[in-house]
Amino acid sequence: MSTEEFTDDMDAIRQIFFDECDEQLALLEEELTTLGEELENGEKINTIFRCVHSIKGGAAAFGMEELVKFSHLFESVLDLFRSGTHSVTNDSVSTFLKCKDALFDIVAAFKNGGGDCEVAPDTISELESYLHSETSEPEQAPEDAEMDDIFGMAFAPVKIAIDAPIEQNFSITLTVTPEFYERGDDVRNILIALEGLGQLQVKVDTDRVPLIGDIFPEQSYLTWKLLLVTQKSQVDIEEIFEWSGDDLQATITLASENVDDAPAPLPVAVEEKTDPQVRKSVDRKDSATVRVDIQRIDKLVDLIGELVINQGAIQSQMRRNKVHGDSVLGNVVTAQEQLIHELQENVITMRAYPIKTVFQKLGRVVRETARLTEKQVRLVLEGEDTEVDRSILEKLSDPLTHMVRNAIDHGIESPQVRAQAGKDPEGLLRLRAFQRSGRIIVEIQDDGAGLDPDRIYEKAIEKKIIERGQRLDRDEIYSLIFEPGFSTVAEVTDVSGRGVGMDVVKQSLQQINGRIFISSAKGKGTTFSISLPFTLSVIEGIIFKAEGQDFVIPVNNVLETIIFDSRKAFHIGEGKYGYPYRDGYLSVIYASDIIGASSDGLNQKICFVIENENEEKLAFIVDKIIDHSRFVVKNLEDNYRKIACFSTATILGDGNVAFILDVEFLFGELLKKRESSLEERV
Amino acid sequence: MEALILPELLDTRYSVAFSDLLKKQEDGFLLDGGSVARVGGLCFQLLVSAFTTAQALNVPFEIRNVSEGMKENLLLLGGDFLLQGAGEA
């Protein structure tokens, strides 16, 4: 291997380590935000300890001294909580969260090419205060306690108070693969870590080592037989091997005191004697996963998109050449279409992440906001495993954060006010995610004061958003909170109330084809419902023609399709029509309106009855229906400015571009102009 | 016989070069470990191979001037036998 290849490999391995760090930090955050909420914190502390320990282990392998040093200190303090010397309090959780932030910063600094990242002195002081409070207790650390030395850095010995510590002898056999060294790790690091757990006797089996003329320097020929005398548990020993994965084979058994009695390096032979927990930790093949660069998956999604377009082109040519669908070619093409459809669904699923990754960050937001506003809030999360496309998830975090802050700052009352109102002093904030009608729904529900329509209305007049006397229904009044500059709080707080935010929330959600709805009851609380597409890559839609052009309408919004009888449409004003539907009437929007054609629309023959998330309906009149299919979404805004009545575009089988209708726009902008006239007429 | 001066880091990166150097030692292995701060598994394995080769061919094997870091690392890796007759720095 050349030096250049080695450097490339090392860079790739470092990247894997940073990815691992991201996962460990996310898990750390998740566990920390719920720490203290349950009576039994033991397992959580163990998980937190393991996260920090894994980061430290990897950092040591890459010589990231600052990271090793700080994670070691953090780990030492966590050990005091793990052993029961200290109990979890709000203060300690706050310290741990600061430490998590510090770890994040140090990892980020190394990721960006340097390690110069100083941890805030108060965070270090808080950690050290736990250590000092421990060592100041009557039982002193052993005088002969050696300093733990990693990269020449000394750490203060930490005494762990365990009732009647019992020393056990563990026999450990280590064999390593060449890959273990290739990915930057070294058996030396493992031995140093094991030595840190107790007294270690090392014997190396050199029988397989060839003479120098025959040796391959990157092969691994040695086997180590170790005897570890320690007060630590088998789980503690396993943790040392966690980051090594399958590249290091370790068998751990309770042993006699002589290292020569250690088992032979045959993992299969000793498996039955090994604690099942050890196997779980060391043998990971059963739950093997492959780490794939997200850009590769994005590329795959794009390529399959092109495949779908090509499939459309084939079908288009077949129609043009009058090839029937039940011919041999037709059957083959249909089978291929099904395969491509399945392939596309699978690949899109690969890019889906559970919404948990966003929800778990909000746990901390809730905790911090509640602290700043001096409110008591209980967070309930539901549907955390609901999966959303990564591209949507990335843009969901900021709007949700703002809405959660708003719900606590403006929605949930102070404990005193709640008590006076006969409510539980502790407010409830429920975050819920689920699927409905092919879309993802995220709800933010609080049991606070609820929205006050009168107050919102007055505030909107004051802010010159509306004029006094303007007739608005309750939902329209609620939606005023999304207007730029709207805020009902008299005082700007640290948390929210700067008059910006909810308008940005709405805009951010619109960028990912999201819609937001409000339901609220005064004194009982408010629910914000966000409706999101599962993916931004593909849409199932109906292609229709209007004024000679092709357009697509999302099939989710089409309730039914009926023949339009223009004689039944009644005129309600200039260019405005109503149409009888079942026992009532629908507002009519002609497709010709949205493309700015001069036609009066009376020649159009097909009526889509379309429905939005609020179950509002309208009649959308087009010339004719062409096909029903899945369309690959092409973002207009990458190359062109946003066109108001279209969300995106797609490429059809014949190579032409068709715009995809923004149904919410129809209900919002166009319908609004007609409603008043229709009401007057009816 | 000239002593082979060992570098500060006998780590994975150095293993290929170290192997090449050891293969050129025809009359035995005289190594100077005065600068060594760290010994990794692969270089340790090469030292073991050199030691075994010396015994098989009946040629000398000696690590002179062993630094404290090298000594600690060799003991940690179970290579106390490599230090027999070694002079410390």
Features:
heterodimer, A: 682 residues, Alpha-Beta Plaits, 5 domains, 6-stranded mixed sheet, 42% helix, flat, disordered C terminus, B: 89 residues, alpha/beta, 3-stranded parallel sheet, 3 helices, 5 strands, 39% helix
Known CATH architecture of the largest domain in chain A: 2-Layer Sandwich
CATH architecture of chain B: 2-Layer Sandwich
Largest sheet of chain B: 3 strands, parallel
Task: State the CATH class of chain B.
Answer: Alpha Beta
Structural class of chain A: alpha+beta
Overall pLDDT of chain A:
77
**Poorly predicted parts of chain A:** 135-164, 261-287, 490-500, 676-682
Protein name (chain B): Chemotaxis protein CheX
Organism (chain B): Gluconobacter albidus
Pfam families (chain A): CheW, H-kinase_dim, HATPase_c, Hpt
Keywords (chain A): ATP-binding, Chemotaxis, Coiled coil, Kinase, Nucleotide-binding, Phosphoprotein, Transferase, Two-component regulatory system
Describe this structure in words.
- Chain A has 682 residues and is an alpha+beta fold.
- Chain A has five domains: 1-160, HPT domain (Four Helix Bundle (Hemerythrin (Met), subunit A), Up-down Bundle); 166-285, Histidine kinase CheA-like, P2 response regulator-binding domain (Alpha-Beta Plaits), CATH 3.30.70.1110; 296-347; 353-533, Heat Shock Protein 90; 538-681, SH3 Domains (SH3 type barrels, Roll), CATH 2.30.30.40.
- Helices cover 42% and strands 23% of the residues of chain A.
- In chain A, strands 16-20-21-19-18-17 form a six-stranded mixed β-sheet.
- The radius of gyration of chain A is 32 Å and the shape is flat.
- Chain A starts with a helix and ends with a helix.
- Chain B has 89 residues and is of the alpha/beta class.
- Chain B is built from three helices and five strands, in the order ββαββαβα.
- Chain B has helices at 15-23, 41-57, 68-76, and strands at residues 4-5, 9-10, 29-32, 38-39, 61-64.
- In chain B, the strands form two sheets. A three-stranded parallel β-sheet of chain B has the order 1-3-5.
- In chain B, helix 1 (15-23) packs parallel to helix 2.
